[in-house]
Amino acid sequence: MSIINPIRNSHEVFKSSQELKLSNPVKVRENSPYTNSLQNKRHASASNGTNNPYRKRRGIISNGINLSPDEKIKITLRKHWFILLKDIFGLIILYIAPFIVYLYFFDNAVITEFFNNKIYARPTLPIIIFAISIWTLIAWIKLFTIWTDYYLDVWFITNKRIIDIEQKGFFRREISTFRMERIQDITIEIKGILQTFLDFGDIHVQTAGESQEFIIRGIGHPKQIKEIIMHQSDIALEDRNQIPAIN
Amino acid sequence: MSFNANEFITLFKSFGLTESIDNIVSNNANNIIWFVFFAVFAFFFIYSLILIYHWFKYGGGLFAIWLAIIVYFSVSFILIAAIYISAIII
């Protein structure tokens, strides 16, 4: 078992050459199910599957991505936590809005008298608990919907390509791949006070393909991520130049 | 010309639609409450299935998935229990 410093969230940085030092390195087995989760599918399909211990996990861990035999995931990136917090903040405002409306309007004597002697004019405690619990449950479900959308948006940076997985609501998923040797230029964009202090921003990657630019939005430590991508791109170009041409 | 609150309230009370709604709600309050409970539970059940499907199929990290499941269902069951108990009391 070797000490590997994987990136789980974008505020941590991993560099294959071990030049960057992390404050809290995490021990991970090289052949752990997580780091090799995407390669298990290839292993399972290559063998008859009867003795493969990861065959059971194929349907659970797989992201639907096949890696080539010599391809390894270097970094797994997700959006900065502030992006998630921003989405949750809107939900919090929506959740407390009915309480504010109730406390404001039901203080009015006219409307209170209008609802007098009606069943909904005497809010007993069970009715209050019933209504608040339903509203809270709906908000709780929506909260996890937001978190799921955040968690399933992920970028894999391998030694050969960048895989962009974007979850757009339920049952809608976009997967884009960009080869490392086609990357021509990378631009970092950090806008505003919050992004500057929290160190997150957008990474614009110029490629030579049909879609000339793709953007990684809301990533932490964009400068370090840019260096890693450039490093992998240089290695991919060197490997490509060393392959002899087939006549 | 001053605003007369009593006349304003009387005008509202004589409105037929609100009186009929009030009668329907009063006579069928129990059925309405249980209908709302089962509708909310069905909504929760379907959404939970969709969330779990996406977590297991695309989640990647098992620890994060199981942690999310534990937190999600523990709080959800507390809320559903509160809804059920309050519906019984009502």
Describe the model:
The complex is a heterodimer of chains A (247) and B (90). With 247 residues, chain A is an alpha+beta fold. Chain A has a domain at 83-149. Chain A is built from seven helices and seven strands; from the N terminus they run ααβαααββββαββα. Chain A has helices at 37-46, 58-61, 81-105, 109-114, 125-151, 192-198, 222-242; strands at 73-77, 154-158, 161-167, 173-179, 183-189, 200-207, 213-220. In chain A, strands 1-2-3-4 form a four-stranded antiparallel beta sheet. In chain A, strands 5-6-7 form a three-stranded antiparallel beta sheet. Chain B is mainly α and 90 residues long. Chain B has a domain at 29-89. Helices cover 88% and strands 0% of the residues of chain B. Chain B has helices at residues 5-13, 16-27, 29-58, 62-89. In chain B, α3 (29-58) runs antiparallel to α4. Chain B is elongated. At the A-B interface, α2, α4 and α5 of A face α1, α2, α3 and α4 of B.
Please summarize what this structure is:
The complex is a heterodimer of chains A (247) and B (90). Chain A is α+β, with helices and mostly antiparallel strands and 247 residues long. Chain A has seven helices and seven strands; from the N terminus they run ααβαααββββαββα.
Structural descriptors:
heterodimer; A: 247 residues; alpha+beta; four-stranded antiparallel β-sheet; three-stranded antiparallel β-sheet; 7 strands; 19% strand; elongated; B: 90 residues; mainly alpha; 4 helices
Helix content of chain B: over 70%
By secondary-structure content and strand pairing, the structural class of chain A works out as alpha+beta
Tell me the quaternary state.
Answer: heterodimer
Estimated radius of gyration of chain A: 25 Å
The rough form of chain A would be described as: elongated
Quantity of strands of chain B, as a count: 0
Radius of gyration of chain B: 22 Å
Physical arrangement of strands within the biggest beta sheet of chain A: 1-2-3-4
User: Roughly what fraction of the amino acids of chain A lie in strands?
Assistant: 15-25%
Structural class of chain B: mainly alpha
- What is the straight-line distance between the termini of chain A? 44 Å
How many strands, which pairing sense, and closed or not: the largest β-sheet of chain B?
none
Q: Major beta sheet of chain A, specifics?
A: 4 strands, antiparallel
* Distance separating the two termini of chain B: 45 Å
Q: Based on CA inertia axes, which overall geometry of chain B fits?
A: elongated
Chain-averaged pLDDT of chain B:
80
Number of strands of chain A: 7
Uncertain parts of chain A: 1-62
